[in-house]
Here is the input.
Amino acid sequence: MTYRKLAGAAALLTAATLGLAAPTAAVAAPAQPPCSEASTVRETLPNGTTWQLCWRIHDRAGLVLTDVSVSTKKHPEPVQVLQSIRLAQLNVPYDTGDTEYNDLTTYGFGGYSLETLTGDDCKGGSTRQGTDGSGDPQQRDVLCVSAEASGLAYRLHEQEWDDEANEPKDTYFTKEGHDLVLRSISKVGWYEYVSEYRLHDDGQISARLGATGDLSPGDYSVADNGWPIGKREKDYASMHYHSAFWRVDFNIDGKGGETVEQYDTKMDGRGSQAAKLVTTSKTIAKEASLNKVDRRWWRLVSPTSKNADGHKRSYELVTGADDPYEGHPEMQPDVTFTQANLCDKWATDNVSDPECPLDNYGILDFAKDKQKLTDPVMWVRVGFHHVPRDEDQSPMPLHWQGFDLLPRDFTETNPLAPEGREAVNGQQRN
Ligand SMILES: [Cu+2]
Here is the structure.
C-alpha cells in the first residue's frame, strides 16, 4: 500500500502548543485513504516527521494500529512500516498457583472493558471517538493522541578552525525530540491497562503495556509468594505475572515479504589491544520460536525496498526488561516468527474460532510445521513479575512492559539531520 505525498498538508504541531493545545486534525487526505478520516491519525511532529496510520478498537485485542507509514522533512514521501500491530495475549497467573487469567481471550480489552477517557487521561493531547469493537455503535472518547517531548534527540559539538578570524569556531547541533503517542485504557477486573504506541520522530516505534488500577483484593497469600502490604506482617498480596504478547506484521514500503535475520556477536580471541568480537548473521527461513542470548538481535528486512545508499530497509526488534515465565511452554520463546495465517490470532488460548483447527492453541502450534517464511508475522513476548509494594495502594502507580522497533537503514542518514550535517554519509575524510 502506498500513499500520495502529503505535501505538507498535515497539521504542524509546534513545540509551543504541545503542552497546551490538542493536536489539530490534518486537512488533506490521500486520494485513497486505507481507512475513513475518523479512523486516520496523521500528525506532523515539530521536527517535521509525519506519522500516518489507521486505528480501531477490536473487541478482544483493544487498540489496533494498521497501515502505519512515516515520512520526514528530508523524505516527504510516506513509506509504510507496519501492516498492523496489536496485543495478542495478556496472561496473568498468580504465584500461588490458584488463579490465572488470559485477559484478552477471556475478557478482551475492547467492548465493556474499554474505558471512556476522562480527567487527566489525555492531558495535553486530543481524544478521538470510536466504538468499542463489540458491535455497539455508540461512539465514545476511547483513543488519546498526543505529541510528547521525548528529551534530547541528538547533540553534536563541532569544532573547526576559522581561518579568517584565526581562532576556533564552535557549532552546536542540539535538538529536542518528540513522540506521537496513541493510547487507550481497558479495565479488566481490578486492573486498568494502558495500551500505548509511541511513534518517535526518528522512526522508532515503541509498544508498551502499562498496568494501574488496584491490586486484586481476592489474591492474598503468605510470605512464600506474597508481600505484606498491610500494617506489620499482615495482608500478603500475591505476587503474579503479567506476560504480554504483541503481534507485529511488517509491510516495509508496502512491498511485504520481509526476510527475518538473526545476528550474534561472539568473542573471537584478541586483537592488538583488546578482545576481538565477531558478528555473524543467519536468515531465519522457516517458522521458529527463538530466545535471547547476550548481543543477539533480530531484524525484518525488505527484500526489495532500499534507502538512497542502496541498503535494504529494515526494522530491528529491540527487547528490554523481561521476566520469563516457566509455567507454560508457550511463554518460553522471546520471539516467534510464523507465516501469516488467518487462524493464528492469539499467541495463546487461540481456540475460539470454530472454523479453525482445534490443535492450534498458540504460537508453538503455529510454528510447529516449520513453514517457509514468505510473509512473516512476529510475536513478541514480554513478561513482568509483579511483586506488590506498599506503594501499589492506591491507585497503583503505572508499571510498564514493552519493546522497541528501531529503523535500521530505513533512511541513508539520520532523518532529523540538521543543516550542516546533511552531507555526512560514510567515513568522514578530512
Ligand atoms: Cu500486577
